[in-house]
Amino acid sequence: MKKKHIYLIGFMGSGKSTVGKMLAEQIELPFMDTDQLIEDKTNKTVENIFQEDGEEAFRILETDLLVEIENKDRAVIAVGGGLPCYKNNIKALRDSGLVIYLNSSLLTLIKRLRLDKGSRPLIKSVLDEELPRKIEAMLSDRVVFYKMADVFVPNEGNNPQKAIDDIKRELTKREWI
Ligand code: S3P
After folding, report:
1. Which of 9, 11, 12 to mutate to test the pocket of ligand 1 (most atoms within 8 A of CB)?
2. What is the pLDDT of residues 124-148, one digit of tens each?
3. What pLDDT score was predicted for residue 121?
4. How far is the CA of 173 from the centre of ligand 1 (A)?
5. Which of 24, 118, 133, 149 sits CB 3.0–4.6 Å from 99 for a disulfide?
6. Which of ligand 1's atoms lies nearest the C-alpha of 121?
7. C-alpha dihedral over 89, 94, 96, 99, to 10 degrees?
8. Per residue in 16-36, pLDDT tens?
9. Which atom of ligand 1 sits closest to the CA of residue 35?
């Protein structure tokens, strides 16, 4: 499989969708989001899939989706936070594209997710006071997979353009753009 896509991976709230959309526009590639692709395909929201079919069913949809994505034209793809951490998905990502880990500190993630947990099935019913511990535990399980990315890009504060500039620099260096 020829490497072609630009994948953004990272924990929920790391800014994959924001950075991905802006990056795609600036380098003139289509943008895709694995959650959105699953919602389009199943005609259900991610929240409903978790609720009605369970997390395992969602993880199967994610893995199946990777095969379909590999056959699409080059795109910038925001990848659901859990996707790289199941099955052998991180390998499939690495084999078919450049994998960029959008990396935010625990404190930044807690701050962002506290404001925006309502539509996220894995944390929506976690009490605010339990949220830091929950995020820390999930992150510590997942970071080993995120660290298998090709490139690490920090995304702190509220300056997505800085992360985008870092990514563009990497893409130029690797002659991807
Ligand atoms: C998940 C992250 C979500 C979505 C689902 C599960 C996870 O995507 O795929 O709620 O396991 O971390 P985002 O990372 O885009 O929020």
Report:
1. 12
2. 999 999 999 999 999 999 999 999 9
3. 95
4. 30
5. 149
6. 10
7. 110
8. 999 999 999 999 999 999 999
9. 9
